[in-house]
Amino acid sequence: MSERGFEVKFPLGDYLPLANSKQSVSEPARETPVLTECDVAVFGGGPAGLCAAAAAARAGKHVLLVERHGFLGGMATAAGVNVLHTLYGTDGRTKIIGALPEEIIRRLQDLAAARNTSADGETGGWIICSETAKFVFDDLVVGSGVRLLLGARFVDVVRQGRRIEAAIVEGKSGRAGIVAGVYVDCTGDADVIRRAGAETQLGDAAGRCQSPSLVFRLGGRKDQAATLGEIQAELFKTPMDYNGQPYPAFLWGNPGLWDSREHMLAGTRVPGVNSADAIDLTRAEVEGRYQLRWVLDRMKSMPGWEDAYLVDVAAQVGARESHRILADHQLTRREVLDGATFPDAIAQGTYPIDIHNPDGPGIRFEHLDGRWSRIGGDASREDGRWDGQPKGARLRETLCYHVPYRSLIPRELDNVLVAGRCAGASHDSAGAIRVMVNCMQLGQAAGTAAVLAGKGGDVRDVDPRKLRRRLMEDGVPLS
Predict the structure, then answer these.
(1) Does some domain include residue 131?
(2) What are phi and psi of 457, to 5 degrees?
(3) How many domains are contained in the chain?
(4) Does residue 337 lie in a domain region?
(5) C-alpha span between 238 and 258 (Å, rounded)
(6) Do 381 and 409 belong together in one domain?
(7) Which of 218, 217, 201 minimizes the C-alpha distance to 209?
(8) Distance between alpha carbon 201 and the CA centroid of its chain, in Å?
């Protein structure tokens, strides 16, 4: 023990709240003042929410966007995930994503804050500056006429039958109500849906969720430094000090946008976490930082990383999965992998099904071309075909997959839409549509649908043909 005393000892002791399941408190009844009335209220200012709000406001609706942080962007900013995947189909030529996701990329390009990973400078994925993205997201929503409420957290709803009559938020000014025609849940964890008492799905068939990661940036990387695969294999050889377990993460990242000596690393992963549970989330945040410190210490012993130093740590862990709505249509694994088409398709993508092991090391990918791959905690790799074909067989030529409008509609509610990673999908298919460029598409579709909703905000009154036509007029390249 140091002279200061009371030092942390490894493995970590129990630092989480002591559960009390026997007591409850009675809150007095109260009248909550209404902060504002609007046409569309969007909760969650991440990639889905900011696009939902911008789409509805550009159509002339009075829109309120509520975000718990003091800035917009969610996973792209608060969680430090600085990757937007390709706008093109698997052929590398056909544009399948446009409109607001593309506008965001072009705005970042104008500020020299986006770099394409392809040699042609266009058809690959994009590395962005998460800090500059905060400016771009401000410009997008403010310029579109959205009303903003930052530093406020959604906490509850007032429900009558199949409708939400009001939403309740809390912030520095206390508790307030928001009354809207249509409510759009972009919280990532289906918070609005769950507070309304509607049923959701959690994780996989056993309720296990993909593990979250805490992103960080390092400086001091030298030329010819050890690769991330080499680092992962080395890290796996030694148990982590904070819990004595094997290193569980799939180590990925990319060189800095401004300085090649910097590197963004999704270098941590905390298994067994439901990010919609407050105690689980606390553990993910704390253990993510202890895991990060162990990773950094170990990396400094590897070639080219001897002078590595910490540049910053994301403000929150990057959650991959928790609750998903039960929708009018639940998107399935085979619908994604087969590129199934729908008459009400409102979004398209190519990002593979990507499942981070909920319980420990390892990751599995399933690609539209028929291949699967599994990477172990020691960086070992297995490959095969999910379509039953031999390895050498011709690859499938599926251009993209599609998401129907019905996957944004919760079964038990009439004036509510959902966009982002809590949309209606299976555990497997959600592993594909959850990435940010797809969430942006779902958000734009939800915001546009909210504009077209019938009297009383009934989202099932939206004519899918009119919705698709409006989206295409706004630049969505629906094939």
Answers:
(1) yes
(2) 75, 25
(3) 2
(4) no
(5) 33
(6) no
(7) 201
(8) 17
Q: What is the pLDDT of residues 190-206, one digit of tens each?
A: 999 999 999 999 999 99
Bridge partners of 153, per DSSP, are: 170
Average pLDDT over all residues of the chain: 97
- Say if residues 248 and 269 touch (Cβ distance below 8 Å): yes
The answer to whether residues 112 and 143 belong to one domain is yes
Using the 8-state DSSP alphabet, how is residue 207 labeled? Answer: S
Regarding whether 188 and 230 lie in a shared domain, the answer is no
CA 160 to CA 33: how far, in whole Å? Answer: 18
Is 176 a residue whose pLDDT tops 60?
A: yes
Residue-range definition of the domain harbouring residue 288: 211-319+351-398
The number of helices, as runs of H, and strands, as runs of E, in the chain is: 10, 22
From 340, 364, 398, give the residue that closes a domain. 398
SS3 for 10-71, per residue?
Answer: CCCCCCCCCCCCCCCCCCCCCCCCEEEEEEEEEECCCHHHHHHHHHHHHCCCCEEEEECCCC
Same-domain status, 154 and 266: no
Over 60: is that where the pLDDT of 1 sits? no
pLDDT digits (tens, 9 = 90+) for 37-77: 999 999 999 999 999 999 999 999 999 999 999 999 999 99
Q: Are residues 184 and 224 in the same domain?
A: no
**Other CB atoms closer than 10 Å to residue 148's CB: what's the count?**
17
- What is the pTM (predicted TM-score) of this model? 0.97
Query: Quick one: 133 and 227 in the same domain?
Result: no
| Token pair in block for residue 191 | 């918070």
Q: Residue 2 has what pLDDT?
A: 57
Q: Give tens-digit pLDDT for 412-470.
A: 999 999 999 999 999 999 999 999 999 999 999 999 999 999 888 999 999 999 999 99
Contacts 24+ apart (CB under 8 A), 295-301: 295/235, 295/247, 295/249, 295/265, 295/267, 295/268, 296/218, 298/234, 298/235, 298/238, 299/218, 299/231
Q: End of a domain among 398, 415, 436? A: 398
Considering the domain architecture, whether residues 49 and 158 belong to the same structural domain is answered as: yes
pLDDT digits (tens, 9 = 90+) for 339-380: 999 999 999 999 999 999 999 999 999 999 999 999 999 999
Token output for 214: 């805490």
Residue 177 maps to which CATH number?
A: 3.50.50.60
Confirm whether 263 is domain-assigned.
yes
Instruction: Give every CB contact of residue 408 below 8 A, 6+ residues apart in sequence.
Output: 327, 346, 417, 418, 419, 423, 424, 442, 445, 446, 449, 459
